[in-house]
Design brief:
The chain has five domains: 230 residues, 3-Layer(aba) Sandwich (Rossmann fold); 102 residues, Beta Barrel (Elongation Factor Tu (Ef-tu), domain 3), CATH 2.40.30; 68 residues, 2-Layer Sandwich (Alpha-Beta Plaits), CATH 3.30.70; 113 residues, Ribosomal Protein S5, domain 2; 81 residues, Alpha-Beta Plaits. The chain is built from 16 helices and 36 strands. Helix 3 packs parallel to helix 4 and helix 12 packs across helix 13.
Length: 694
């Protein structure tokens, strides 16, 4: 591990799915000597995509960490997912990065919504970044088109440091505009520094002038020096690029091919030269948990220890592995720290550096470094670990909203509890995954970011925990209520020899305001119903409400009053009055205009300007009511309320309407009356389901 924070780089490999981030990571590991072979996603030998589902689907599903040394610097690589369904881990890991390598494919139209989301998050965190145009050896590769796309779609100010030597099948190397040399791949796969090909000489000279001019915009001082001298020296140029990158004034751009190893040494040089160390980043801001006052910690090994747990790995056999960054001080094995979020002590056992799927023990971890520790008792992702004598609490992790839900039904009877326990373990690893049991429908509901997200969870559930489940559309938790008032008698009178059953209760029902729940009132006078039977009357009404009237859904927002009745000295009992009350309540409901209520969701949809009309029209067709529209940097934010039944499968529809550029979040708003023309359909479906269970 490092002894100097200045020599640490925590590099996030980010970008949209399919850009080749993982291949770039594998190529960096080989170029830096961390591995002796080039891992490959396509043949399942990647050092970073090692999860069985990742190998099967050839897609990064979670962030993977590895380590490489370059020019005396220690680089922790964090290879992150690029597809929207798995971006939660990416956003979590960006919290601990000191800089990013943004990987993109060469050509126009290559910036998709995932790249925009990651770039916007990097802007929020003020994370310095380098862009690497990968796959320059592929058909129709166009470096300039990629540069233009970066500038146009993401609004990035760029400093181009490379020119490609050839393109597509003729791509053999890059021109390093800083040193004005060509670095060309030889037939044996090695890289050799050569003079710039004559055909590229003029273009390279012009590109270098543009690079110097762009780099001079790093600070006013460099701009003045450039204007005075007409150029910058090589040392000045490096310093200007470093300062401008660290301040997020611009983004250096390089190019290459991960599969051919072209451009990777230059990328590593740029990472250690231009991206900051944790010590060069702003202090970590938190709150004093005792005084509730803002405080901050610098990445200094000699200060009090603090760290942020940003990732949890759960193995059904090995247990939980907590991955954290030391934000201040030094972490040591066999020490005790304090978890501020859980208000309890934790014992740090052995510390590990993650090397793909392997773990390397370390003796300590200084400020800035990222390590893992096993078997913490009660620590989860987003928690702050700290010195108990100098506590600080850092902000937790930002969570993506769950936008798609399925009901899970185990294929084997008796596996429901096993599935529930396994899923709750999986939610520790995947913070975008949510599991709960619906109290009304009793279904086990699994919610996530999208269809692919849920399907991968089901695959892992089978592989890791041996539980097979089927996915079904969740039942809509309708409710029932009344719109009118009514009075009725409920009477039970049975005589079958010996002691009979007698209960007589007069019930009045009336509607409450929406959300009012249930109220019971005892208006008995003169003891016509003895006090000991009144609780039984309330219980009978509550049970009848739970059973429903129209379609078997729970009844709500009703006030029931017991106002009269009679009893028998011998035959009356609590059971008799409970039954009588239930009968009277049902008679009342039949006369009080019973209706169905449907759950209503508040939805917020962010869409590009050109899609707003289509999306609003679609929401209207789903019986939605648009509440307002406001401009956002990424388009328009549409706020609306819409019935839950109409948005159970909204995610793929929105993706189709917006070309994957739209996003949305849902929040339960309340219940409203179901339109009359839909009531018969819901009632018939409920009756059919009841018959199927019988």
């Amino acid at each position: 591990m490092a002894d100097d924070v200045k020599l640490i780089r925590n590099l996030g490999l980010v970008g949209q799915g399919g850009s080749g981030k993982t291949s770039v990571g594998d190529a960096i590991l080989l170029a830096g000597g961390a591995t002796n072979r080039l891992g490959s996603v396509s043949d399942g030998t990647s050092n970073l995509d090692f999860d069985p589902e990742e190998i099967k689907h050839k897609v990064s599903l979670g962030a993977a960490l590895h380590h490489v040394s370059w020019n005396k610097h220690q680089i922790t690589l964090i290879d992150t997912p690029g597809y929207m369904n798995f971006l939660q881990d990416t956003l979590n890991c960006m919290r601990v990065c000191s800089g990013l390598a943004f990987v993109l494919s060469p050509g126009p139209g290559e910036i998709k919504v995932e790249a925009e989301r990651v770039w916007a998050r990097a802007d929020e965190l003020a994370l310095p970044r380098i862009a690497f145009v990968n796959k320059m050896d592929k058909d129709r590769a166009d470096f300039q088109a990629a540069v233009d796309e970066l500038s146009r779609s993401l609004g990035a100010r760029l400093v181009v440091l490379h020119l490609p030597v050839g393109t597509a099948e003729t791509f053999t190397g890059v021109v390093d505009l800083l040193r004005m040399k060509a670095i060309v791949r030889q037939e044996n796969g090695s890289l050799k520094e050569e003079s710039i090909p004559a055909a590229l000489a003029d273009e390279a000279s012009a590109a270098r002038e543009r690079m110097i001019e762009a780099a001079a915009e790093a600070t006013d001082e460099w701009t003045e020096r450039y204007l005075e001298n007409g150029t910058l020296t090589d040392d000045e140029l490096h310093l200007a690029i470093q300062q401008g990158t660290a301040a997020c004034r611009f983004v250096p751009v390089l190019c290459g091919s991960a599969t051919k190893g072209i451009g990777l040494p230059s990328l590593l040089d740029a990472i250690v030269r231009y991206l900051p160390s944790p010590a060069d980043r702003p202090a970590a801001k938190g709150v004093d948990p005792k005084l509730d006052e803002p405080i901050e910690r610098h990445a200094e090994p000699g200060s009090a220890f603090s760290g942020l747990v940003f990732k949890t790995i759960v193995d059904p056999f090995a247990g939980r592995l907590s991955v954290f960054q030391v934000l201040s001080g030094t972490a040591k094995p066999d020490s005790t720290v304090f978890n501020v979020n859980r208000d309890g002590r934790e014992h740090l056992g052995h510390l590990f550096r993650l090397e793909g799927k392997k773990q390397q023990p370390v003796e300590k971890a200084i400020a800035g470094e990222i390590v893992a520790v096993a078997k913490l008792k009660n620590t989860h992702s987003g928690d702050t670990l700290t010195d108990e004598k100098a506590p600080i609490q850092y902000p937790g992790l930002d969570l993506l909203p769950a936008v798609m839900s399925f009901a899970l039904e185990p294929k084997s009877k008796g596996d429901e509890e096993k599935a529930s326990q396994a899923l709750h373990k999986m939610t520790e690893e995947d913070l975008a995954l949510h599991v709960h049991r619906d109290p009304q429908t009793h279904e086990l509901i699994l919610s996530g970011v999208g269809q692919s997200h849920i399907e991968i969870v089901v695959e892992r559930l089978k592989r890791k925990y041996g539980v097979e489940v089927e996915l079904k559309t969740p039942k809509v938790p309708y409710k029932e209520t009344i719109k009118g008032r009514a009075k009725a008698q409920g009477k039970l009178k049975k005589q079958t020899g010996g002691r009979g059953q007698y209960g007589d209760a007069w019930i009045e029902v009336e509607p409450l305001a929406r959300g009012g729940g249930f109220e019971f009132a005892n208006a008995i006078k003169g003891g016509v119903v003895p006090q000991q039977y009144v609780p039984a009357v309330e219980k009978g009404i509550r049970e009848a409400m739970h059973e429903g009237f129209l379609a078997g859904y729970e009844m709500v927002d009703i006030k029931a009053t017991l106002y009269d009745g009679s009893y028998h000295d011998v035959d009356s009992s609590e059971m008799a009055f409970k039954i009588a009350a239930s009968l009277g309540f049902k008679t009342c409901v039949a006369q009080a205009k019973p209706i169905l209520l449907e759950p209503i969701m508040q939805i917020e949809v962010v869409v590009p300007d050109d899609c707003m009309g289509d999306v609003i029209g679609d929401l209207n067709s789903r019986r939605g009511r648009v509440l307002g529209v406001e401009p956002k940097p990424s388009g328009q934010l549409i706020r609306a309320i819409v019935p839950m039944s109409e948005v159970l499968k909204y995610a793929p529809d929105l993706r189709s309407m917006t070309g994957g550029r739209g996003s949305f979040s849902l929040e339960f708003k309340g219940y409203e009356e179901l339109p009359a023309h839909l009531v018969d359909k819901v009632v018939k479906e409920a009756e059919a389901a009841k018959a199927a269970r019988a």
